[in-house]
Design a protein that fits this description.
266 residues, alpha/beta, TIM Barrel, IolE/XylAMocC-like, Xyl_isomerase-like_TIM-brl, TIM barrel protein, Xyl_isomerase-like_sf
């Protein structure tokens, strides 16, 4: 299963009828970044043109990993690229195990984003130091940035013991959108196995065993879905067809839910 080039991603999102897409402008390693967007003026112009032509909007840009010594200047350039594409949010995560240092770097990232009128969506990750909803909320409170919100990936929530009651107690203002997928009930054991599941073995909505109706019903009403379903099952399909399958499956599942459990999609 290979990642899509940003231009291909926009075209696939439009063909599948999604209103938004997310674009990767920063990655932990060069191998994970299909195209270097920051600094590529030609690619930025072409992406802006394709977005305008298709009507697809960029919901977020990713991934700003706050390691022990992040390159905040490079992140600032990626934020600028994301802002030029119209992104509302920059997705950050926290592998750094030192809480005070992580909080300081997150605050600095938020300051850079605020200068561009962008929000930072912090995603807790079952394989990182900030791995649970509660740890993410503590970090957000410690950071205290007004443009910092919480990004919940339902897979990571469930794999760290979270459920509908945990979502229901979070201030709705902290959850402006959510990453959704389905999965098998009993998750893999160990960090590396969870990482593999998150990257290649998620299930499409309605094709797993999670309590999606309960989880979605506990979220703020009307927020967008970011459909996060990387799966090897679709790897042999052209990317545009993968997007169509994901869209069709997602909409069929949403149509099966009670009206008050539905939100938008991406």
């Amino acid at each position: 299963m290979s990642a899509a080039h940003p231009l291909e991603l926009v075209e696939a999102a439009a063909a599948a009828g999604f209103e938004h897409c997310g674009i990767r402008v920063a990655a932990p390693t060069a191998a994970e970044l299909v195209a270097e967007i920051a600094g590529d003026e030609r690619l930025l112009r072409e992406l802006r043109r394709r977005l305008a032509d298709t009507g697809v909007e960029v919901l977020d840009v990713e991934t700003f990993r706050l390691i022990s010594s992040p390159d905040l200047d490079a992140m600032a350039a990626s934020l600028e690229a994301g802002r030029r594409l119209g992104a509302r949010y920059a997705v950050a995560s926290g592998p750094d195990p030192e809480p005070e240092r992580l909080s300081d770097h997150l605050a600095q990232l938020c300051e850079r984003a605020a200068e561009l009128e962008m929000m930072v969506a912090f995603e807790f990750h079952s394989c990182y130091a900030v791995d649970t909803l509660d740890r993410a909320l503590v970090l957000i409170g410690r950071c205290g940035a007004p443009n910092l919100v919480l990004l919940v990936d339902l897979l990571h929530l469930v794999r760290t013991g979270g459920g509908p009651p945990d979502l229901a107690r979070v201030d709705p203002r902290l959850i402006p959108y959510v990453q959704v997928c389905d999965a098998v009930r009993d998750g893999p054991v160990g960090i590396e196995a969870r990482r593999v599941e998150a990257r290649t073995d998620r299930r499409l909505l309605g094709e797993g065993e999670l309590d999606l109706a309960g989880l979605l019903g506990a979220l703020p009403v009307g927020i967008p879905f970011s459909v996060e379903t990387p799966t090897m099952r679709l790897r042999d399909l052209p990317f545009i067809d993968q997007a169509r399958v994901v869209a069709e499956t997602t909409r069929a599942f949403l149509d099966s839910l009670p009206t008050d459990s539905r939100t938008g999609d991406r």
